[in-house]
Automatic annotation (TrEMBL):
Listed GO biological process terms: negative regulation of cell motility; positive regulation of cell adhesion; regulation of cell migration
Signal sequence bounds: none
Domain of life: Eukaryota
Start and end residues of each FERM domain: 17-298
Organism: Mus musculus (Mouse)
Name assigned to this protein: FERM domain-containing protein 5
Cell inner membrane found in the keyword field: no
Region (Disordered): 344-367, 385-407
Biased composition (Polar residues): 388-398
Record-annotated membrane-spanning stretches: 501-523
Principal subcellular localization: other
Keywords noted in UniProt: Cell junction, Membrane, Phosphoprotein, Transmembrane, Transmembrane helix
Length: 570
């Protein structure tokens, strides 16, 4: 009896798994789930812990053993999706950026979105001109330390915070000036709301960049925003497509297709190549979810989407949540006392030094600060890491803003780019962002691959999400292979075409055979089925039967008798 109880308890323990979810303020939430627990169960536990009702904007992100990032699907088992050994580590992040973050109903929701955008600003995903950067940083400063106090905030106090990948002394003075003179009296909630209103006006608000290559092998970033689909290429935005113009999203292997129908019935197909088939499928699923969330009026309009080009081939996926309009309507009905918010602005952060009070880099003079060493492949990985998939490093509109970079070889086996802190300019992390023009300039992935320097430090969210140097080199090699052309994939494309044609012929022959069987049953059998009886009684069928089928049957019978008699005679 005792042994049975012990074995039963051991089996029960085996069915339970420990999960750790890293939150937006870098704190951690740990819980235990059953083996068959769905993603929705874990997400509901997390939202209950955060006292969050407007939860449809958020999601849980994880990385699989192959270093590919995913969003946790709420309708599937958590254990089966992660495919890794427990304990499991995941991250709570904004999945769908609200089109108007200031219109969110509850302060707790605005605070979480504020934390996400602050991370985007620090990791180089949210780009803006220097004046906007100073204002955003001043809002953060006001929200975290309150009004300027000469007794508590000595000269240079803003340098103890890091709001961007790198700072300049001029930018720090501008931040402190705005904080002292323009924001006095604002509460943390007011500063956060003003921060969200300003961030919303920037062109890269809500951008989640995915690294790809176009048909010519040029580097590009694909991104889904609250307003549409964006392609960033060649240091400028080459496409901006509204959601109502996107008619279809499809992928095959590493190839991603976007079907667009614009004014005057103009139809185009955009084709891009992802680094791996898994990355391409992740891109496709993100596109399906974003299009459903922002475009549809009701969740009942959501349909299962297939990536297949013909018949049985391909993946099937269906967005399972509510759409943006439903979320806003539901938020308007919330009636409760505002939950207490425990702001974590003073807690040291692993991935976002802007919320710490430690020195920004060092207390020694600026000209003596140590250089920041970032390897080329670490820079490449930083494009895949962070709150979503790929932080973007920007470049300036003028040569005067370009940082002076000195390179050295720190290791005989790995080339290292050295960026001296004293050579940094504000435009290294921020740049003018015209909203109404197509001249957004970005430093794309090709600069990483070709040996250009990178000023974005890697966001170290989890050991599982940070590949080793060997894995990073393998990823870089694969992307370089894409740059050199797609000669090796031409044969694969031909094979796919031949297989598609053969599959079409096979299915066509099968359909004709089925139609022939149905015709024989209708004309030659005596089955008294209501469906067959109704068809036989139609004038069209009677005409076909007497004018075409019967003569054709007599002709075949005559030919068969002739052949049989010929065989008998011989």
């Amino acid at each position: 009896m005792l042994s049975r109880l012990m074995s039963g308890s051991s089996r029960s323990l085996e069915r339970e798994y420990s999960c750790t979810v890293r939150l937006l303020d870098d704190s951690e939430y740990t819980c235990t789930i059953q083996r068959d627990a769905k993603g929705q169960y874990l997400f509901d536990l997390l939202c209950h812990h955060l006292n969050l009702l407007e939860k449809d904007y958020f999601g849980i992100r994880f990385v699989d053993p192959d270093k590919q990032r995913h969003w946790l699907e709420f309708t599937k088992s958590v254990v089966k999706q992660l495919r890794s050994q427990p304990p499991f580590t995941m991250c709570f992040r904004v999945k769908f950026y609200p089109a108007d973050p200031a219109a969110l109903k509850e302060e707790i929701t605005r605070y979480l979105v504020f934390l996400q955008i602050k991370r985007d600003l620090y990791h180089g995903r949210l780009l803006c001109k220097t004046s906007d950067a100073a204002l955003l940083a001043a809002y953060i400063l006001q929200a975290e330390i309150g009004d300027y106090d000469p007794g508590k905030h000595p000269e240079g106090y803003s340098s103890k915070f890091q709001f961007f990948p790198k700072h300049s002394e001029k930018l720090e003075k501008k931040i402190a000036e705005i904080h002292k003179t323009e924001l006095s009296g604002q509460t943390p909630a007011t500063s956060e709301l003003n921060f969200l209103r300003k961030a919303q006006t920037l062109e890269t608000y809500g951008v989640d960049p995915h690294p790809c290559k176009d048909v010519s092998g040029n580097a590009a970033f694909l991104a889904f925003t609250p307003f549409g689909f964006v392609v960033l290429q060649g240091n400028k935005r080459v496409h901006f497509i509204k959601w109502n113009e996107v008619t279809k999203l499809k992928f095959e292997g590493k190839t991603f297709y976007l079907y667009v129908s614009q004014k005057e019935e103009k139809k185009i197909i955009l084709t891009y190549f992802a680094p791996t088939p898994e990355a391409c499928k992740h891109l496709w699923k993100c596109g399906i979810e974003n299009q459903a969330f922002y475009k549809l009026e009701k969740s009942s309009q959501v349909r299962t989407v297939s990536s297949s080009n013909l018949f049985f081939k391909g993946s099937r996926f269906r967005y399972s949540g509510r759409v943006a309009k439903e979320v806003m309507e539901s938020s308007a009905k919330i009636k409760r006392e505002p939950p207490e918010i425990h702001r974590a602005g003073m807690v040291p952060s692993r991935s976002c030094p802007s919320i710490t009070h430690g020195p920004r880099l060092s207390s020694v003079p600026r000209t003596r600060r140590r250089a920041v060493h970032i390897s080329i492949m670490e820079g490449l990985e930083s494009l895949r890491d962070s709150a979503h998939s790929t932080p973007v490093r920007s470049s300036s509109h003028g040569d005067t803003f370009l940082p002076h970079v000195r390179s050295s070889r720190a290791d005989s086996n790995e080339r290292v780019a050295v960026i001296a802190d004293e050579a940094y300019s504000p435009a290294d992390s921020v740049l003018p962002t015209p909203v109404a023009e197509h001249s957004l300039e970005l430093m794309l992935l090709s600069r990483q691959i070709n040996g250009a320097t990178c000023s974005i430090e890697e966001e170290k969210e989890s050991e599982a999400s940070t590949p080793t140097a060997t894995e990073a080199e393998a990823l870089g090699g694969e992307l370089r292979a894409l740059c050199q052309g797609h000669g090796g994939s031409e044969q694969e494309q031909v094979n796919k075409f031949v297989l598609s044609v053969l599959r079409l012929l096979l299915v066509t022959m099968g359909l004709l055979f089925v139609l022939l069987l149905l015709l024989i049953i209708l004309t030659e059998s005596d089955l008294d089925v209501a469906f067959f009886r109704d068809i036989r009684q139609t004038p069209e069928f009677e005409q076909f039967h007497y004018q075409y089928f019967c003569p054709l049957r007599r002709w075949f019978a005559c030919k068969i008798r002739s052949v049989v008699s010929l065989l008998i005679d011989t």
